[in-house]
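User: Just a sanity check before I run the rest of the batch. Below are the structure tokens for the first item. I only need the designed sequence back.
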């Protein structure tokens, strides 16, 4: 469609420029309607008005070398095999009768911030704290994330009936407060100081802290709200009963609502059945796939404070974003890009992830499910990865627009779909450290010890910085460096999270019932 602007000789030059500017402004305003793909959040297309300079390959020599040899190589034997479980299996206590006291000390509320997986951990901690205090837990409230703007509630994401039924013999849980406490809302606590709100719960607080500081208030007022509540319960020196309760919440009680569960299962089925290619020697008759969590959105890129090759425009844009979202409270911003990379603090770019996967042995035929919300930089960055793995799909390419319509604008619900597809993948890899990787690594270990690749960020940073490495040297270093980072069961060490390392707290290596050898490590009778 052409747009012609005629500036009459009768009209002065100034008026002509004004008229031309008006037509250009109208064209720009119409672009989202005329070419919606340029502005779609559900694709990785580059915005027409980019705030960064399209980058060239940062590791061009490696890309050139691998392309010359890759097409003539076969995948290494055992690439898709799961790691040895070592005999570890899920081991949580099953209750056939209620262990609940005849009364509780009051109602406990928690307000959870963050994304899907941070809230998931908060739910587990809330149930555990309610058990410690002998409190009745009110279904946790989800705060609106300032970045994703998602107002999804607990009931929008997790199956409430299943949650209540699974924990019915463990903890008293209600969906809402009784009428006499209906005043205790998120809005009430946002308007000023409130005596029934606990704001000073320390990170990884001990059970004793809650018994000393929260229990008296709970008993005297009948209701207590704790906010903030992220990471507010310790991982060490807890009774076995409490640790296993956290496991039960995380891996058994938290199930997604049917709408999310159904679409997740549909996508998994399409991934496995819609491709003619299968792994050589596979007798299942369905495709294997690798799920890749590529956390490379603007939020992650800005918070990392790393340089991703988008030039001065990108650096200024990300610095401005940090100032708006975190008001300058980003410690990484004080370090140089080299210092950040040397410390392994930079998420891998799509280009780097692709090179790493090729080094590990994955062929161009590999089917990759991309679990990502948006990719900062659009197609200019994604092209590096897509060229290496052309059989790459997302929920947007596997599902129809009608199927995904109920989840539009709901970042946490979309993340839940990615979580399900990743959970059931043959191999999972997350390109950045964070809650998504930790939650899925633990869940996959708990369910069936599936291959979960944990990139060694420090090693990869050193290898990518070493510009004189040949491709065979680079590949050999990647393979050797990740032999023990393939999802093998690793026992949780002191200070490590039970939500990342479920063994030995959530798992055991014998068939004995956990109830036969479970003993409380501390006396909680004061709370009962």
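Assistant: Here's the designed sequence for the first item:
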């Amino acid at each position: 469609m052409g747009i012609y602007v005629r500036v009459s000789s009768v009209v002065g030059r100034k008026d002509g420029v004004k008229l031309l500017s008006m037509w250009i402004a109208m064209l720009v305003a119409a672009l989202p309607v005329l070419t919606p793909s340029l502005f779609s959040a559900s694709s990785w297309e580059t915005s027409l008005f980019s705030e960064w300079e399209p980058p060239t390959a940062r590791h061009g020599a490696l890309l050139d070398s691998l392309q010359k040899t890759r097409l003539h190589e076969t995948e290494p034997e055992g690439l898709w095999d799961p790691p040895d479980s070592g005999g570890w299996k899920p081991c949580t206590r099953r209750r056939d009768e209620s262990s609940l006291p005849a009364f509780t000390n009051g109602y406990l509320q928690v307000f959870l911030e963050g994304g899907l997986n941070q809230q998931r951990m908060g739910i587990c901690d809330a149930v555990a704290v309610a058990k410690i205090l002998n409190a009745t837990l009110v279904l946790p409230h989800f705060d609106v994330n300032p970045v994703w703007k998602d107002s999804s509630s607990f009931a929008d994401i997790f199956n409430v009936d299943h949650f209540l039924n699974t924990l019915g013999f463990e903890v008293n849980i209600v969906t809402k407060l009784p009428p006499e406490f209906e005043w205790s809302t998120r809005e009430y606590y946002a308007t000023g100081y409130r005596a029934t709100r606990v704001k000073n719960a320390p990170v990884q607080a001990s059970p004793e802290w809650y018994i000393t500081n929260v229990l008296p208030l709970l008993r005297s007022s009948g209701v207590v709200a704790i906010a903030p509540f992220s990471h507010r319960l310790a991982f060490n020196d807890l009774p076995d009963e409490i640790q296993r309760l956290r496991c039960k919440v995380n891996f058994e009680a938290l199930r997604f609502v049917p709408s999310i569960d159904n679409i997740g299962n549909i996508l998994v089925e399409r991934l496995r059945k819609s491709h003619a290619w299968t792994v050589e020697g596979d007798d299942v008759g369905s495709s294997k796939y690798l799920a890749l969590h590529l956390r490379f959105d603007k939020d992650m890129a800005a918070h990392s404070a790393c340089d991703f090759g988008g030039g001065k425009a990108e650096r200024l844009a990300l610095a401005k974003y940090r100032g708006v979202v975190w008001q300058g409270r980003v410690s990484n911003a004080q370090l140089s890009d080299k210092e950040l990379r040397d410390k392994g603090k930079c998420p891998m770019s799509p280009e780097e992830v692709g090179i790493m996967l090729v080094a590990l042995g994955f062929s161009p035929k590999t089917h990759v499910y991309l679990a990502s919300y948006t990719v900062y930089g659009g197609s200019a960055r994604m092209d590096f990865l897509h060229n290496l793995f052309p059989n790459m799909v997302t929920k947007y390419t596997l599902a129809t627009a009608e199927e995904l319509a109920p989840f539009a604008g709901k970042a946490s619900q979309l993340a839940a779909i990615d979580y399900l597809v990743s959970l059931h993948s043959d191999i999972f890899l997350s390109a950045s450290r964070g809650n998504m990787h930790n939650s899925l690594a633990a869940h996959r270990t708990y369910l069936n010890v599936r291959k979960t690749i944990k990139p060694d960020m420090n090693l990869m940073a050193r290898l990518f910085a070493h510009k004189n490495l040949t491709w065979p040297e680079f590949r050999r270093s990647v393979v050797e460096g990740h032999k023990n980072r393939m999802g093998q069961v690793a026992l949780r060490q002191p200070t490590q999270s039970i939500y990342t390392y479920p063994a030995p707290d959530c798992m055991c290596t014998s068939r004995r019932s956990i109830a036969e050898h479970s003993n409380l490590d501390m006396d909680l009778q004061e709370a009962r």
